[in-house]
Amino acid sequence: MASGSWGRGVRILRSAPWLPLLAGSAAATLLLLGAVVGHGSAFAPVTTMLGLAACGGAAAYVLDEESTAVLDATPTSLAHRVLWRLMLVAMPAAVALTGLLLLDRLDPSTHWLRMVPFAAGCLAIGVVFAAVLRLGGHRAPGDLAGVVAVAVLVLLVATDPLKAWVSVAPLGDTGHAGRTTLLWAAVVLVCAAVTARCFRDPGVPGAGYSRGVDVADHHPSHRVARSGCDTPS
């Protein structure tokens, strides 16, 4: 039984859109590498933000399921398939964390590790946009979700709409580091809840399921239909 489950999981992972996922992670790697090379300059924060946003765009591809043959070959629930696919978020997450660790080692005064919550938020936003599009009927939402995620993240960083209370990206000597962590932790939790809601199996009864069954069982027409079915021919 366990080997069968692992076998289905491997097939689910093999069916992932590896080319765009690898391409997005590679683009993020190049941007973060540029920041590492130019650490200490005004160029580094810009490329770092773009690199982390690109990680979020890459994460949007993990939920793509273009081929219905994948579903036939893996008789598992939707939620189970999504859990396997979400493991692939580790790839852009590793790129983001490695880049920030290198930057912090080379330029500790900028406090690059304060960007870890922002990086987590980038990944969560990419996944949740893909989840919402999947709920809307898109089997392969990665392209659209990735572009939207990157655009939203770049816009957030460029405008910093809540800068009077909290900074979206608290680099340097800003005093909002704690608030920023709370902000992005809330974003990640909301994105996780929305993603889980989008991929709840339709076969799982909702809160009103048992109540609906009771009402149907006591409805006169339903009792007549059942009595007719139970009558021997």
Short key terms for the protein model shown above:
mainly alpha; 11 helices; globular; disordered C terminus
Outline of the structure:
This protein is 70% helix and 0% strand.
Structure description:
With 233 residues, the protein is mostly helical. The chain has one domain (2-230). It has 11 helices and no strands. It has helices at residues 2-14, 18-37, 43-59, 68-73, 78-86, 90-106, 116-135, 142-159, 177-198, 209-218, 220-230. The radius of gyration is 23 Å and the shape is globular. Residues 204-219 and 221-233 have low confidence and may be disordered.
* Topology, number of strands: 0
Radius of gyration: 23 Å
What series of H and E elements makes up the topology? HHHHHHHHHHH
| Tally of discrete structural domains | 1
Gap between N and C termini: 43 Å
Q: Estimate percent helicity.
A: 55-70%
Kindly report the average pLDDT value: 81
Quaternary status: single chain
**Helix vs. strand class:** mainly alpha
Question: pLDDT under 50 segments (min length 5)?
Answer: 204-219, 221-233
Strand content: under 5%
**Shape summary:** globular
